[in-house]
Records
---
Amino acid sequence: MRQAVWLVFGLVLAALGAQGAIRLMINHDPGALRLLPGGYPVQLGGYIVMALIGLRCARHNRVQPDPKNDPYR
């Protein structure tokens, strides 16, 4: 169960980071990282780092199938 929570957390973080980076590049709307000092490059880097951390959490804590309950095995 704990792994599923980390998986969902990582996917949500990755989605928010990717959406924020795309919004910043296309619309120049800083969104959630509006208060981050440094302007456009720092905010874009923050969104990219957020997406990468989310992907790392999701990949590292993915739910492993249980071999004894696998019908295809």
Note: The helical segments are 2-27, 40-60.
---
Amino acid sequence: MMRTNHLTEYQYLNFVSAVAILYNCRLIDMDFPKKVIELEGAPDDMSACFHELSMLLGKT
């Protein structure tokens, strides 16, 4: 499992962007201090993207 405290903000941004692209979502904004990721896309794509990010980042 990948923990976010081992990534720089730049690496974290690239990681989240790559997952979003894989699931046909678009990264709108990231608020690092608040730990908020804003994505948009079709409902099924968004669900898959959020699920994958939560699994990979260990936030389930």
Note: The chain has one domain: 4-56.
---
Amino acid sequence: MLLHQRFVPGLAIASYIVGDERTGEAAVIDPTRDVDDFITFARDNDLHIKHILETHVHADFLSGARELKARLHDEPLIHCSGHGGPDWTQPYPDRLIHDGESLAIGGLLLGVIHTPGHTPEHLMYSLVDTTRSLAVPWLLFTGDFLFVGDVGRPDLLGAEAQKELAHFLYGSVFEKLPILPDFTEIFPAHGAGSLCGKALNSRRSSTVGYERRYNPALRAGPEDEWVRTLLAGMPLAPPYFRRMKRINKEGPPILGADLPGQKRWSAREVQARTCARCLILDVRSKEAFAAGHIPGAINIPFGPNLATWAGWVLPYDHPTLLVLENPGQLTEVTTHLLRVGFDDILGYLEGGIDSWEMAGYPLRSLATLSVHALQRSLDHGGRHTVLDVRTENEWHAGHIEGALHIHGGTLQERFGEIPRDRPVAVICGSGYRASIAASFLQREGYENLSNVLGGMSAWKAAGFPMAQA
């Protein structure tokens, strides 16, 4: 048996290729939309992808099942859950599969286990290698049902569905898992960093037995108490999750081998597009953005978290133009955006911000503020509004006395709470999220903004006072 885990940092997505090296047959489980890695791995290992399996209708990224099938000349069969009912049954699979069924991949058997709770239709797949055992599963592909250190959250379909899903999840945990041996290895669809659970571990695999012993969510107790404990401290779910659900239910559009966004735009062409409906996404570092940027641009610095923050703060109904540090970033930036459904990428500014400067077009800057300067200002009655854009847990662990707390991902709905008649110092953990938030506020017309360099990490390191809630 050949097993390959393909992990996407940031979104913390784990997809899998499993194959029988003897027959060359293979299956891909929970593929992302950027499918070249799966095709290349299969080719390099003499595997023929015959099946594509989904564990559930994903909320945090767009499925690559249809894309992979199309790129492989429609040869693989797509398998999705048949337990979703009218609301959560996708129309595009070649086969709807049900609890207790199995799928042969050469000498491997993938067993279908219905594990509702994270979603109503959720499946996990047990793998039996018949060259070693005819019945005992060696591996489990657990999707978003069971993670290393946690279970999938049941609250993503809204408050009305949450109660029923939490009940289903309790049943899946304490009825489905006990029948599996301790030594069975688990391979989940996400690791640490994903918002599909509360306390995911950075380890990317585990065993059923280890999780039984050390995973807090697998500790038995009265159902109501178990649910309350599970939901306590659950991180805020991004609003783009609802969009991903809708698109994945129907099936994302097929992109083809050529990525969008390859067109080079001159500074003059970009300047002509800087209107209310055109979005300029600047992925340069927070320092470069602060020094000078196109008015109205939103800054999400290039890195693993670009896709997550794009989903949090960017509007989906605007065509997008990119400002890059260098053209070599284009493929990766575009891939990040496509994973979360930003398909309308028009292209990028040729020559980068230098070409904009040389053309004589206006630039905006974003002030920066050291924690020492901020502390002096606050100590001497400065008028700064300190805007803390970190998560709830970070805020409760320690914050600046008197700061206004608004999670950076909710600014679209809440920026009206921020006063416009006072300077606003935006702070996060390091300055990354503060740059995103400040650029968004600039786009909304806020003038006197600054990014606090080093964020709360620098504030704490400097020994300045912190309040706790």
Note: The chain has three domains: 2-250, 264-358, 367-461.
---
Amino acid sequence: MARSLKKGPYIDPRVLRRMKKLKGDKKEPIKTWARSCVISPEMIGYTFLVHNGKEFISVKINDSMVGHKLGEFSPTTKFSRHGGKMQRDIEKKR
């Protein structure tokens, strides 16, 4: 469900604090668990280490990511494969 327009996008205050601390140094990654934090234009160029429940995934922010959430770029499940007879036939050919 979308957040109310009068409230504005949710940006975690701890993430903003860490960004201000690293103002000049955009090379050092910012470690965060705030997957629901919306990416704002000020975050472009920074690298975030976003937690997926098991490990931290490196996410470099670019301009096409603005408006999305950090969690969208750190998948929580690992895709193994589709099952079924058709998949077995494909694997036998390899």
Note: The two ends are 43 Å apart (CA to CA).
